[in-house]
Design goal:
The protein is an alpha/beta fold and about 270 residues long. It has eight helices and seven strands; from the N terminus they run βαβαβαβαβαβααβα. The chain has a seven-stranded mixed sheet with strand order 3-2-1-4-6-5-7. It is an enzyme of class 2 (transferase).
């Protein structure tokens, strides 16, 4: 039996209807003659937040049919980022890929994404911001505005072109270097790029276009957007806290000098103080 080298992590909540097409399409892509990654070296690991919607039974059926898929059900935790972290912790492979369960991350890109990872390439990112890619072409305008705005806010934190996509991979040794991971954060790719200190030269990017959600409902809510802003604030402090302190000191000194000049007596005049 071959030793597993790759793990595909799928965080899920009430995605039972999408799991069969997701798993079968992943392994169909891996079994193509031109796949750079052999299917027998890959596992699909679903991290389910106690959906109770038939997800466990669906994965069990797929496993019985010969697909290397398994599921971990969390009963005391919730949230996308913490599910991804749990998946990376449980993964058998050294090269790990995260993707959504809703089929918006096309499974046909999995072999290329996995093959991009190596001891020299620690992070791979599916990017919608590349020549020839129609960015979020099937999304309504408000979703595209939110996506572009979220990306712009993250630009000072990383040189990666699209840390918002959620379709990304990381080597296990790089993941283990990350400290103080915020499991409540909205964008775990951005979190890991910053906290695992991934240099630009160790990042590969694979252009892709978002697919359309097949089943279920979008998880994007106002609460999620607020969580993202909170995550950004924490990452800015993590990355630039010394600059924040320096800026505060400079502002204080400028204000002190200004007030001193304002209150100081002019030549020939006496201070009232």
């Amino acid at each position: 039996m071959s030793t597993l080298q790759y793990s595909v992590i799928v965080p899920a909540y009430k995605e039972a209807r999408n799991l069969r097409p997701l798993v079968t399409r992943i392994f169909a892509a891996l079994r193509r003659v031109d796949s750079p990654v052999p299917a027998e070296l890959v596992e699909v690991l679903v991290i389910d937040d106690n959906s109770r919607d038939g997800s466990v039974e669906e994965i069990a059926a797929l496993h019985q049919e010969g697909y290397n898929a398994r599921i971990v059900v969390r009963t005391t935790e919730r949230g996308l980022s913490s599910a991804v972290v749990r998946g990376f912790q449980e993964a058998a492979g050294e090269s790990m890929l995260c993707m959504d369960a809703d089929l918006q991350h096309p499974p046909e890109y999995v072999p290329q994404m996995l093959a991009s990872l190596s001891p020299h390439v620690q992070f791979v990112l599916g990017t919608r911001y590349a020549p020839g890619v129609e960015v979020d072409k099937d999304w309504p305008l408000y979703r595209r505005v939110i996506s572009s705005g979220a990306r712009l806010l993250a630009l000072p934190l990383t040189s990666a072109s699209d840390p918002m996509s959620g379709f990304f991979g990381i080597r296990k040794e790089a993941f283990l270097k990350a400290r103080s991971i915020n499991g409540a954060g909205f964008k775990i790719a951005l979190e890991l790029l910053v906290k695992a200190h991934i240099p630009r030269g160790a990042i590969a990017e694979v252009p892709f276009s978002f697919g359309v959600r097949a089943e279920g409902e979008s998880k994007l809510t106002g609460k999620v957007m607020v969580k993202y802003l909170e995550q950004l604030a924490e990452l800015y402090w993590y990355q630039y806290n010394w600059l924040v302190v320096l800026a505060a000191v400079l502002v204080f000194l400028v204000c002190a000098l200004f007030l001193r000049a304002l209150w100081a007596p002019t030549d020939g005049a006496q201070s009232k103080w």
